[in-house]
Write a structure and sequence with these properties.
The protein has 14 helices and 12 strands. A hairpin with a 3-residue loop joins strand 1 and strand 2. The termini are far apart. It is an alpha+beta fold and 467 residues long. Strands 1-2-9-6 form a 4-stranded mixed β-sheet, with no helix packed on it. The protein has a 3-stranded antiparallel β-sheet with strand order 3-8-7, with no helix packed on it. The chain has a 3-stranded antiparallel β-sheet with strand order 11-10-12. The chain folds into 2 domains: 207 residues, set domain protein methyltransferase, domain 1, CATH 3.90.1410; 162 residues, no CATH class. Helix content is 45%, strand content 13%.
Length: 467
């Protein structure tokens, strides 16, 4: 039988590997880049790898950070232009990093060109075609994507201003900014691995890009994650920077793909940041906000949104913090009638922990039940379309040729949206069912109490008659 020839590596990826070697990265006899049927490109074991073996070592000088962008010739020019034009506040470190990436991707002579040109299209929904983004309408991810697009449009306005002083920025379009944003959002590692400790937009920790290591895919199939990333300090008495090493925690067979875990995250977060979902994700949750008079919690008279995360029942269900807040809202509603529940964009931080057990009243149960049932009913019209998308999953796993690539990608995205919406429906249905159980138990208890009261009254009447 004739041995199948391995597909040649695209020129951009070959160029990336050569660039990394020049900078001192080591990976030659351990790993190789290959294309995958569903995740684009991944890292694979070149031979059998033993536990504790260093698979990849990337010098810290290869880490692309906000500090690198700000210190570059472009970063300095942009900062000076922003100061001159009076838009320094809008010219954030994040935006400068985006601009640095956009220019580096198109300039062959740029110091980071070999890396940036090897990167794929942005996978997150903000970079999807408009028709595919529309499938997220009415969801919390859809709302967050709309906000991201508005932010990118505002940034493009700032770039147009800066281009009057820095002409090379004139060629950067809004779609380029969205690409850079998507790369950072979906591929970044903690900033300390790149030698920095800084914050990005909305006060969140800024990350760094680590070439080659950012081709590691998520362990979506549930196989044991046997790798660990760690920062290795340089030897003492040297001026050299450290490196970031990928180490195996167990035997990895030749030809196996090497995964890392992006963490136990709900599909809402995975879809928003990475553009994919996990079927039957046990970490799925639903974001809900309690909208009430600020005075209820000691604030002023303005409306406030208090965000909560409702999980699957097995993971805690409705958090006790939400039940407490609903009790306060129900009491306020009884007084003024102006409290309610609202959906919010996804909070991409750690969700609230479930608190201690507490007594649950009928008023707060009814308030929550009404809000969640409304959300569930709004999600029902897409059930049939989602089922069709999920039934086609096996066909997509067979792979696609170049002519089918566009259709293949669109169908895969529809599947991810279907997985996300299905998870949302399941969480909502579990929460609604749980609340209905509480309300039914309360109603049964009242009926029993009334029955006991009537029986006692009848007995007292009989005693009087008999007397």
């Amino acid at each position: 039988m004739k041995k199948r020839r391995k597909a040649a590596l695209p020129a951009e990826l070959s160029g990336l590997l050569a660039w990394l070697k020049e900078r001192g990265a080591t990976f030659d006899d351990t790993i190789e880049l290959r294309t995958t049927s569903s995740a684009g490109v991944g890292l694979f074991a070149k031979r059998d790898l033993s536990a504790g073996e260093t698979l990849v070592s990337v010098p810290q000088s290869c880490a692309l950070t906000a500090g690198v962008a700000l210190a570059s010739e472009l970063g300095v020019a942009v900062a000076a232009a922003a100061e001159k034009l009076g838009c320094a506040e809008a010219c954030t470190a994040e935006l400068v990093t985006w601009l640095f990436m956009c220019r580096g991707r198109t300039e062959p002579g740029h110091a980071w060109h070999a890396y940036l040109v090897s990167l794929p299209a942005a996978p997150d929904p903000a970079s999807w075609p408009e028709a595919q983004r529309a499938e997220l309408d009415g969801t919390t991810v859809g709302g967050a994507v709309d906000e991201a697009l508005q932010h990118a449009a505002q940034c493009q306005g700032v770039v147009a201003q800066l281009a009057t002083e820095v002409p090379e920025l004139a060629s950067i379009a809004e779609e380029d900014l969205l690409w850079a944003r998507g790369m950072l959002l979906s591929r970044q590692f903690p900033s300390h691995l790149g030698g920095e400790n800084s914050t990005g937009s909305a006060g969140r920790a800024a990350g760094c890009l680590l070439p080659l290591l950012d081709f590691l895919n998520h362990d979506a199939l549930g196989t044991p994650v046997t790798q660990a990333l760690r920062y290795v300090q340089p030897a003492k008495r040297t001026a050299a920077l450290g490196c970031v090493a990928l180490t195996s925690g167990a035997l990895i067979q030749k030809g196996a793909e090497i995964f890392i875990s992006y963490g136990d995250r709900p599909n809402e977060e995975l879809l928003y940041a990475h553009g994919f979902c996990i079927r039957d994700n046990p970490m799925d949750d639903v974001a809900l906000a309690l909208v009430l008079d600020g005075g209820t919690f000691g604030g002023g008279g303005e409306q406030e949104e208090e965000p909560f995360r409702i999980r699957r029942q097995a993971a805690g269900g409705i958090p006790s913090e939400l039940l407490r807040a609903a009790a306060a809202a129900a009491a306020k509603q009884g007084e003024e009638g102006d409290a309610g529940m609202a959906a919010i964009p996804p909070v991409l931080d750690a969700p609230l922990e479930v608190g201690a057990a507490l007594e649950v009243g009928a008023d707060e149960c009814m308030l929550l039940h009404s809000a969640l049932l409304e959300r569930l009913q709004a999600a029902l019209p897409s059930v049939a379309a989602d089922r069709r998308s999920l039934l086609a999953e096996g066909l997509l796993d067979q792979g696609a040729g170049p002519a089918d690539e566009l259709h293949h990608g669109a169908a895969r995205r529809r599947q991810y949206v279907a997985m996300y919406r299905q998870g949302q429906r399941e969480v909502l249905l579990e929460a609604v069912t749980w609340l209905e159980g509480l309300l039914q138990a309360a109603a049964d208890g009242e009926s029993e109490g009334e029955g006991e009261g009537e029986s006692e009254g009848e007995r007292e009447g009989d005693d009087e008659d008999g007397g």
